[in-house]
Amino acid sequence: MIVAEAVGRALAACGAEAVFGVIGSGNFHVTNALVASGARFVAARHEGGAATMADAYARMSGHVGVVSVHQGPGLTNAMTGLTEAAKSRTPLIVLAGEATEAQSNFHIDQAALAAAVGAVALRVTSAEGAVEQVVEAYRMAVGERRTVLLNLPLDVQSALCEGPEDVAGLATALLRPAATRPRPAAPPGAASAGAALAGAALAEAASPGGGTEVEVAALAGALAAARRPVFIAGRGARHARRELEELAGRTGALLATSAVARGLFRGSPWDLDVSGGFATPLTAELVREADLVVAWGCALNMWTTRHGSLISPGTRVAKVDLDAAALKTHVPADLGVVGDVAEVARAVTARAEQASGYRTPGVAERIRAEGRWRAVPYEDESGGGRIDPRTLTIGLDDLLPPERIVSIDSGNFMGYPSMFLDVPDEGGFCFTQAFQSVGLGLATAIGAAVARPDRLPVAALGDGGLLMGLAELETVVRLGLPMVIVVYDDEAYGAEVHHFGPHGHPLGTVTFPPADLAAIARGHGLAAVTVTRREDLAGVAGWLDGPRDRPLLVHAKVAGERGSWWLEEAFKGH
Ligand SMILES: Cc1ncc(C[n+]2csc(CCOP(=O)(O)OP(=O)(O)O)c2C)c(N)n1
Ligand SMILES: [Mg+2]
User: Fold this and answer.
1) Is the pLDDT score of 390 beyond 50?
2) CA 243 to chain centroid
3) Contact 255, 286 (CB under 8 A)
4) How remote is the CA of residue 477 from the centroid of ligand 2, in Å?
5) Where would a tag sit more exposed on the chain, N or C end, judged by fewer CB atoms within 10 A?
């Protein structure tokens, strides 16, 4: 066996189930070894797509994401997606060939590249240490929620690995050094069981706890004193719905989320949906009037708080986070608890007295009547061969089955699907926006679709984002994903048009002639409908009726006279 094979086998044994990549000579053997060990390989058409697919897959499946790339340009192509993953603390392992010879065309300082974007760089340095180094990469990715670049120097990869024979056994043993119990032998292809075991082992080892006695008592005290508490749950709370609902029920708190955790409290009569730029007027009002905001695994950044304006001067702020540094960033906490959200919520619940807090019949009625964007009246601006993006999105929301998983690209359009397309729960929304990059939406939707084949994948993109990520259109078709891709086409980089247009600047650099995006989609083997009026959505209904044997692209020519109001908010941050 060569080292490359040992690396692939070891990583599969640790729990890698799905690998996204573009194969070249430098990652051929390692990827094949993963596949031979039961992992699924998803070929992307561009490494940028592969990185984002793996990121979205990890977010929506709860498993580690793995990316496999060729040395040099394979890695540089992946960098935007890897930056998004690193900023989002997605557990991701990037297997990259590495040309260590300075004369090689492929040579770059790969470790420096990773460090520059907040990823961790490790390297497999010898045949003897290979398995241990893979396990360390896995431990760091999952245990510390890091994006880990595992460099695989070409000469080390091809070295013969004398042993051990049982690479998988050694990897699992190393992963859980304290375990003395023998593990049941996993049948071939039973990667899931292995992954679950490995994940549980790491979770046990790295349990961050539920805060100190003093911190928990202080938070319980603050909740007891509050008359209008609001919980805002973020990425770090996506696993803790039950615990947070229980505590909120006990203390009379209303429930909101950041955009990344959208859907977490869906179905609760006290669900305010998203706090921040996408918040309904009612949610903005209720958050502003809170006397205590508890941020659960949520940094309270400028998006979640509308540049801090949703947190009124008299409102106390408490934060619960795994990361002590997060307590001080953005809106700083008056009161902080370091720990896992679910554990802290349980500990506080044990001390909390029953109170009605913010949960009055009047508030319940207002949430029922005004709690969703659909209930907010607007003037339909459709006409002249263009559909109002709100009318489009509401029409789609009515048609698409509720069991959906919605992924969103970046741009002026992004508020419409984020506000008007409902999602069933926190597993129904994938928001790769930590780096605010245009062009990640389609690959995000692919990774999410691989993670959740039980749901209809919906990708919402601008024309700019579609064309930037177009390489993966073929991937959607090849994988047979029953995806609906909605393109909000304003023939422009609308975000820039609305940013600079009002000041009279020339816009020739950010506007484009019409492009037949439906024809482009058909050329790739998708079905396509062009939508300029509400009636055209009949084409979407027809596709949904079946057989859904190919993905659908909805080319919506949207009215774009005005920018979205939430974007005006965003520009304040530029
Ligand atoms: C990779 C990258 N390039 C450029 C930008 C700047 N940018 C932000 S929004 C945007 C326009 C995107 O256009 P489109 O996808 O059509 O969405 P629209 O704003 O028109 O709704 C651009 C170019 C960015 N955020 N990321
Ligand atoms: Mg556009």
Assistant:
1) yes
2) 22
3) no
4) 24
5) C
